Amino acid sequence: MAIFLTESSKVIVQGMTGSEGTKHTTRMLASGTNVVGGVNPRKAGTSVAFPQGDGTVDVPVFGSVEEAMKETGADVSVIFVPPAHTKGAVLEAVDAGIPLAVIITEGVPVADTAEFFAYAQDKGVRLIGPNCPGLISPGKSNVGIIPADITGPGKIGLVSKSGTLTYQMMYELRDLGFSTAIGIGGDPIIGTTHIDALAAFEADPDTEVIVLIGEIGGDAEERAAAYIAEHVTKPVVGYVAGFTAPEGKTMGHAGAIVSGSAGTAQAKKEALEAAGVKVGKTPSETAALARELLS
After folding, report:
1. pLDDT in tens, 134-154
2. What is the C-alpha to C-alpha distance for residues 10 and 247, in angstroms, rounded to an integer?
């Protein structure tokens, strides 16, 4: 099993013909993702030949998300569109009724995110991101920029604010494997939260251990801790990035804003531990805790 993304997912790429879209579509196809189309109104009716094995695979380009869904049955869109045009791309995907839209773009204005997130919620469309690496269900499908060859399928569910730490945790636990690893992004407003992923992993019969990675700023981890205490029966291990961040200095992601004691790594660690989550001091220690729980 997996959450949000399975081997039957049919993926379209908004911005497939741009440099980032082309590069990562090539990688997604190589990892077995069923990419059924791209969207670019200026190149509608054409196709792009992507290298695959010893040959190539032709992926058609459509003029709109609606047309792509109608022609291919697509149920996931991944968005590689510059920040200024991201809102329009997301609104188009939501209007077309795509069940899942994954927004990789970094630097999306927060006001734009607030607008398209509220709209997507009203329409029942799940967003992941923006400013995220996407998600992977190893051996089934990979949507975004997560390297597919780090790990294989297994019993661990991973949800992380940090892209780089997503990759590190996958690598540290590569011999055990993952049901799904999801990078939710570190912006102040994001579509899918730690809590959304925790709920999905709790419901997934093949996820046995959950790894949660947070970072300084905001209160998402504290809210996740409260949710775990009430609703999660599976073992959860955690890591919070930012213990060594200098006080009063703005760090990293746009969401990493600390006010007083709220949002510090220590406050988040204490909240998670109070909910029964084992929190590692380093990513490697967190991986070791997950390993203990699975063995």
Report:
1. 999 999 999 999 999 999 999
2. 45
pLDDT grade, residue 264 (50/70/90)? confident
Catalytic residues: 253
19 CB-contact burial (10 Å; exposed 0-12 / middle 13-18 / buried 19+)? exposed
The number of residues making up the chain comes to: 295
Task: Name the CA radius of gyration of the chain, rounded.
Answer: 19
Q: Which of 57, 14, 15 is nearest to 32 (CA)?
A: 57
Q: Residue type at 17?
A: T
Q: What is the pTM of this model?
A: 0.95
Nearest to 87 by CA among 114, 125, 121: 114
At residue 195, the pLDDT reads: 98
Model confidence at 257, pLDDT cuts 50, 70, 90, reads low
Q: How many alpha carbons lie under 13 Å from residue 227 in its C-beta half-sphere?
A: 18
CA angle 84, 5, 111 (to 5 degrees): 25
